[in-house]
Amino acid sequence: MGRAVQRVEVVAFQALKTVDPPVTALGGLTVTGVSRHGKFIDLDIDGLHLVIHLARAGWLRWRDDLSGAKPVRPGKGPLAVRVRLAPDDDGAEPGFELTEAGTQKRLAVYVAADPASVPGIARLGPDPLGGDFTPERLGGLVGGSRTQIKGLLRDQSVIAGIGNAYSDEVLHAAKMSPFKVGATLTDAQIAGLYEAIVTTLREAVERSRGLAAKDLKGEKKSGLRVHGRTGEKCGVCGDVIREVSFADSSLQYCPTCQTGGKPLADRRLSRLLK
Q: What pTM was computed for the model?
């Protein structure tokens, strides 16, 4: 914080979702704060907000010196946005780049006077690490739903910021099947789920604290107990971690810890095998 923005270079024009205020309005302003809304990163730049959603394949890469970075033509490579900050006294030009691999381009950047005007932020549910998130509130959010708990935890309009990986981790910690229906949860199960959510996310935040952006993905992967570990042994019980695959995602779970030893059918809308 405290650095002035020199300019913002948009390479992948589909990533920029707003036109008013224009992205050029950020030039010359100073970064005065950084916050988070669910999975949205919010840079307060003298009252204007540069809001970033990295989606599944996006990445933020800090650069100590962008002075030698060559212009990139739209459509060439993974670079989507480059933010150049004011040069240091030694002439180095720090900043960061937003990149996105793959063909599904979902990385999104917004410039807004009020972050609440960003559609994705406006529909967010409560922050699970916020002071107003309690077991009673969690019960109100999931208790009457006929949706499976895995889907509820991933739904940003229900609870902000958990996502696919940490929903697997939360359900493992809570010893709960990902296909358990929200409305069937008892008060004791809701209390256990609440504790698993808060503890899992707080531990993840503490492991990430102080790490450079380039090290965050590696840390996240190393700290996961079940997500992304299909075929490995569960660190709690020693059973083999299994997977259920969907059209565009997958989940991982431990049968012994979460489903009474029964494997889940590997198909959409599957239920416990009888």
A: 0.87
